[in-house]
Specification:
Largest sheet: 3 strands, parallel
Distance between the termini: 33 Å
Number of domains: 1
Mean pLDDT: 88
Shape: globular
Length: about 150
C-alpha cells in the first residue's frame, strides 16, 4: 500500500506532504523510513513520561536513518478550564521539553486537551480558523516548520 501511495499516486506539484504515522517504531514507520530516505520529521508526544519514551524511540530511529528532526509537538499538554482559565496538567508536565532535549531539538508548540468546537450546520469539529485559540497554535507551529524547512 505504501509503495502504491508513494509511487503510483499522481500528486502534482506539492509544497509539503505530511504523513501522520502511528506512534513508536513499528512496521509502518520502518517501511516509511526505508522508502523515503531523506525526510524531515516532527515528533509528537504527550507530556506523560511513557509517551515521551515511545516518542524518543521514534526520534532515535529517525536519527539513525538520517532523517532530520524539525522539532517536537506536545499534544494534550494541558487542559484549560473555560470557567476559570486555569490550566490543569492532566498528563503531567515536561515530557515534550525532556524529549526535545534528548533529541537535541526544540518544542515547536503545545496543544491543549479539549473538546472540539461543534457547529451543527458545518460538521467539521477538528478544523480551526486562524483566529481561533487552537487555530493560532497550529498556525504558529506551521510557521515554525516552514521557517525551519527554508533554512
Amino acid at each position: 500500500m505504501l509503495n502504491s501511495f508513494f509511487n503510483e499516486v499522481e500528486w502534482g506539484d506539492l509544497d509539503y506532504l505530511l504523513l501522520d504515522l502511528p506512534p513508536g517504531t513499528g512496521d509502518v514507520a520502518l517501511d516509511v523510513h526505508s522508502m523515503l530516505p531523506s525526510c524531515k520529521e516532527l515528533i509528537v508526544t504527550t507530556p506523560h513520561p511513557t509517551a515521551a519514551f515511545v516518542a524518543a524511540r521514534a526520534g532515535a530511529m529517525a536519527l539513525k536513518t538520517e532523517h532530520e528532526i524539525l522539532g517536537v509537538v506536545e499534544n494534550m499538554a494541558y487542559f484549560e478550564s473555560k470557567l476559570t482559565g486555569e490550566k490543569e496538567y492532566v498528563f503531567g508536565q515536561g515530557g515534550g521539553e525532556k524529549l526535545a532535549e534528548e533529541l537535541n531539538t526544540e518544542v515547536l508548540g503545545q496543544l491543549p486537551l479539549g473538546q472540539p468546537d461543534w457547529d451543527d450546520n458545518d460538521f467539521a469539529p477538528s478544523v480551526y480558523q486562524e483566529d481561533h485559540k487552537l487555530g493560532k497554535i497550529y498556525l504558529d507551529i506551521a510557521k515554525k516548520v516552514v521557517e525551519k524547512l527554508g533554512q
